[in-house]
Amino acid sequence: MKNVVLLAEERTGKIKPNVLRSSGLTPGVMYHEGNSISIQIVTKDLLNIIKKEGQSAIFDLSYKDKKNQVFIKELQKDPITQELLHVDLQPIAMDETMKVSVPINIEGQHQVESKGGIIQRQIREIEIEAFPRDIPKSIDVDISNLNIGENLLVGDLQVANEITVLSNPEEVILIISEPSMEAEEVDTEEVEVVEEVQQEEE
User: Fold this and answer.
1) Where exactly are the structural domains of the chain?
2) pTM for the full model?
3) Is the separation of the CB atoms in 122 and 61 below 8 Å?
């Protein structure tokens, strides 16, 4: 994200994390030269970057009048409310490759479901290596041509030449399965029960 600078302030242990969050700040850590620095960032600004650039976003961070390019190394969210709980930031060098996890964005789900297929996700992100400028927001893949009984592997993904996929190419991303026999039996039983009730009423 160009021309966007987030301001980070030093965080002390005097204020509890839940108090920070209630005041619109996200606690975090910035790693620098082998040290970890406790920081706090305005949650609204951080969410704005994540929304536009994804969870592997690279941006400028201003801390004590010094500006560093950083990326989101780890982002912790509440599993229920999705509230930001904590963020880990790592300074980067634009002329060095880096290893990051990037989400897989699935397209064409409606076409698969219209054919009766059930999409079973196995993984939701893969690990890649690339220069910071080449790291995508997500890896997009269209599954509209997949049929029941087929699957999608990491090795099936199409990525730019500048990106090296580190995840196992044989790892399964998703499987297209047919509705389970148990579900069909339940549906059949429900129909039979309804028919019996109707007959009794008659």
Assistant:
1) 5-92, 100-182
2) 0.72
3) no
With CA atoms as reference, report the closest residue to 158 among 196, 108, 104: 104
The answer to whether the 5-92 and 100-182 domains have the same CATH topology is: no
Backbone angles phi, psi at 23, to 5 degrees: -100, 10
CB neighbours of residue 151 within 10 Å: 15
The class (CATH top level) of 100-182 is mainly beta
pLDDT digits (tens, 9 = 90+) for 85-137: 999 999 998 899 999 999 999 999 999 999 999 999 999 999 999 999 899 98
Task: Name, in order, each residue with C-beta under 8 angstroms of 112's C-beta and a sequence gap of 6 or more.
Answer: 119, 143, 144, 146, 176
What the block records as the tokens of 56 is 């592997």
The structure tokens listed for 182 are 């148990």
Distance CA 104, CA 142 (A): 11
Helix (H, G, I), strand (E, B) or coil at 69: strand
Q: Which amino acid, one-letter code, is at 114?
A: S
Length of the chain in terms of residues written:
202
The pair of structure tokens assigned to 47 is 């969410």
Q: pLDDT for 45-74, tens place per residue?
A: 999 998 888 887 889 999 988 888 999 988
Question: Under CATH, which number does the domain 5-92 receive?
Answer: 2.40.240.10
Alpha carbon distance 117, 100 (integer Å): 32
Q: Residue 101: in which H helix or E strand, if any?
A: strand 98-107
